[in-house]
Amino acid sequence: MMYAIVDIETTGGHASANGITEVAICVHDGERVVKRFETLVNPGREIPVYIRALTGISNEMVAEAPYFKHVAHEIYELLHDKIFVAHNVNFDYSFLKYHLASAGYDLNCNKLCTVRLSRKILPGMLSYSLGKLCAHLSIVNNARHRAAGDAEATATLFTLLLNSDTNKHIPAALKQRSREQVLPSNLPKSDIDRLPYTAGVYYFHDSKGKVIYVGKAVNIKKRVCSHFTGNNSGHQRQEFMKNIHRITFQECGNELMAFIQECIDIKRLWPAYNRSQKNLDFAFGLYTYEDQRGYIRLAVDKRRKYSLPVHTCGSMLEGRNLLLHLVEDHGLCPKLCFIQQNDQPCTSAAGQDCACNGGEEVSDYNTRVIAALKTLKQNLPTFAIRDEGRNDEEHSCILIEEGRFYGMGYVSHYFDVDNYTNLKNILTPYPGNDYIRNLVINYAERHPHKKVMFERAVVAV
After folding, report:
1. How far apart are CA 166 and CA 68, in angstroms?
2. Among 411, 436, 429, 460, which residue's Cα sits nearest to residue 452?
3. Can you name the CATH fold of 3-182?
4. 99: closest CA among 157, 31, 35, 20?
5. Exposed, middle or buried: residue 122 (CB in 10 Å: 0-12, 13-18, 19+)?
6. pLDDT for position 275
7. For the packed helices 147-164 and 114-121, what is the interaxial angle rounded to 10 degrees?
8. Which PROSITE patterns match (predicted)?
9. What's the pLDDT at 235?
């Protein structure tokens, strides 16, 4: 079996927006290095100052070097029929695969990561960076952060790993069914092995244990593994893969529970790599306030961070239509509800005797506003969803109270879900939002047999 031990230097951290400045390949026959290749490469762009300081490769050094397309054929011939080996292999492989594809070559190799192999074959090291490993193992590297020096050091390390692999970790990693070669270099395979084939939520942690991504799945193991397929060369994916050090999970009874738990945890943990669910609340709300004369006024406005609207709306138009119904059904003043915003006479049935002209007592008008809001709240549903649990001994339960998500949890098969007060006491309250509320309401409409209705509570405004 032949191995190509590779190291490259680049102008930046992801292939799609950066060039290669140096490539070194050590061809290894399983016992020793039998061939060496190295070349500087003109990246076709400026090398950043910090990269020049790190590698010592300057713009002047690569000015006369070949462009990658001119050495692509030779590099492909050295790599395509061998096992691709590197320290943090996904970085080097993604760069070379991307730039070879740009030159017309399709690289598809089995891969081995000497970071992952070192963790297994040489456990207990304080650090598995190439520099720290070389220092600990007395591997000489006279050209640190240069492709040839690092490739030679990796080749020496790989020889040591081959000779020390008494538990056959290397053959296991190369098995056709093994997913290990596509895993992030810092992620233990044991974390993958522990994942269940059930619905739930999973969490990616960085080196300090902080959650950097939250996801939900019908099948946790299958979904997590799908994150690591392919060789996307974009910046976000490369950074994402590099920062995954641990995976934890939480099993849920069903997909709906997983959806809700994911949303709750994204809001709670604010992970760096979650984008789509950080701002899913409806943008507008119906607000009340008392003016200088004491009249309660209604207005639709953009949601404010620390205020609680009496009702949420998806758009200004939706909010205006809601206000129109309240005005018509309860005889409210269109001017005090900002439906009529001009200096013309009030268009309400009361005319000159309308509250906006002081023609109606404050207490009388406010009583009608309170009644309108009470009716609005009473028309919002209160119900529970009783569904599959995490095992055969329990059910999951989600409670919507007056149109708002209250909380959720798991109850015994023998628990009386129809008892509203007892149910509230046993469920865990969570902060809700419009996204969760709509998830549950839409699910209830599709599965009415799982819905447990309660009498509408009378809510004081």
Report:
1. 40
2. 411
3. Nucleotidyltransferase; domain 5 (3.30.420)
4. 20
5. middle
6. 82
7. 30
8. GIY_YIG (PS50164)
9. 65
Q: What pTM was computed for the model? A: 0.62
Fold match between domain 3-182 and domain 189-269: no
CATH number of 189-269: 3.40.1440.10
Report the C-alpha gap between 320 and 277 in whole angstroms: 26
Q: Rounding to the nearest 10 degrees, give the CA dihedral for residues 343, 345, 349, 355.
A: 70
| Residue ranges of the chain whose pLDDT lies below 50 | 457-461
Cα separation, 44 vs 54, in Å, equals 19
Residue corresponding to tokens 């205006």: 320
Look at residue 461 in the predicted model and tell me its pLDDT: 37
The phi and psi torsions of 358 (rounded to 5 degrees) equal: 80, 15
- Annotated domain spans of the chain: 3-182, 189-269, 284-375, 383-453
Distance CA(453)–CA(385), nearest Å, equals: 9
Write down the residue that tokens 């669910």 correspond to. 277
Query: Do residues 150 and 130 touch, judged by C-beta distance below 8 A?
Result: yes
Q: Could you tell me which residues come within 8 angstroms of residue 113 by beta carbon, excluding any fewer than 6 positions away?
A: 85, 86, 87, 88, 89, 90, 181, 185
Cα–Cα distance measured from residue 52 to residue 58, given in angstroms and rounded to the nearest whole number: 6
What pLDDT shows up at residue 440? Answer: 92
